[in-house]
Amino acid sequence: MRSGRTDAALSGVRAPAGRGGAGGAPARRLLLVEDETNIAEAIRFLLSRDGWEVMHCRDGAAALAALAEARPDVVVLDFMLPGRSGLEILGALRARPESAGLPVLMLTARGQARDREAALRAGASAFLAKPFANEALLAAVRGLLDAARAAASAVSATPPGPAAGQG
């Protein structure tokens, strides 16, 4: 999966033993798209300690390629990235059937109301401005995963309707 470009490197951090899902279930998977190394390392450390397997990409092209290989449970996407913006990457995610419903947290230094509105209009599930408290990031990511799992449960628990052409 390596592109050969250091700015588009994808690196994974495995969750510590015993910190994955309940009952030995696999760790929760998160794709982090952040070009600032110090911020990415801090987020990876925080989330891996919370039981997440974190895949990190430095730009949108690497992120879109990573989605083809591994389906994360949640995406944390920086607003300002080299090349294509976070909003453009979000649009590409939403246009793909396999990632259209993926929970996406926009994480950005651009905290103005118009930026928040643009992110939500583009399909962001949530928005968190930098700087942020560690607990705020954890709560946002956990909340997105919980909401996605609840929605998936509701869909799978819905009895099937009449078959097409019957009724």
From TrEMBL:
<dbReference type="GO" id="GO:0000160">
    <property type="term" value="P:phosphorelay signal transduction system"/>
</dbReference>
<dbReference type="InterPro" id="IPR050595">
    <property type="entry name" value="Bact_response_regulator"/>
</dbReference>
<feature type="domain" description="Response regulatory">
    <location>
        <begin position="29"/>
        <end position="145"/>
    </location>
</feature>
<keyword id="KW-0805">Transcription regulation</keyword>
<protein>
    <submittedName>
        <fullName>Response regulator receiver domain-containing protein</fullName>
    </submittedName>
</protein>
<keyword id="KW-0902">Two-component regulatory system</keyword>
<dbReference type="Pfam" id="PF00072">
    <property type="entry name" value="Response_reg"/>
</dbReference>
<feature type="region of interest" description="Disordered">
    <location>
        <begin position="1"/>
        <end position="24"/>
    </location>
</feature>
<dbReference type="GO" id="GO:0003677">
    <property type="term" value="F:DNA binding"/>
</dbReference>
<feature type="modified residue" description="4-aspartylphosphate">
    <location>
        <position position="78"/>
    </location>
</feature>
<dbReference type="InterPro" id="IPR011006">
    <property type="entry name" value="CheY-like_superfamily"/>
</dbReference>
<keyword id="KW-0238">DNA-binding</keyword>
<keyword id="KW-0597">Phosphoprotein</keyword>
<keyword id="KW-0804">Transcription</keyword>
<dbReference type="InterPro" id="IPR001789">
    <property type="entry name" value="Sig_transdc_resp-reg_receiver"/>
</dbReference>
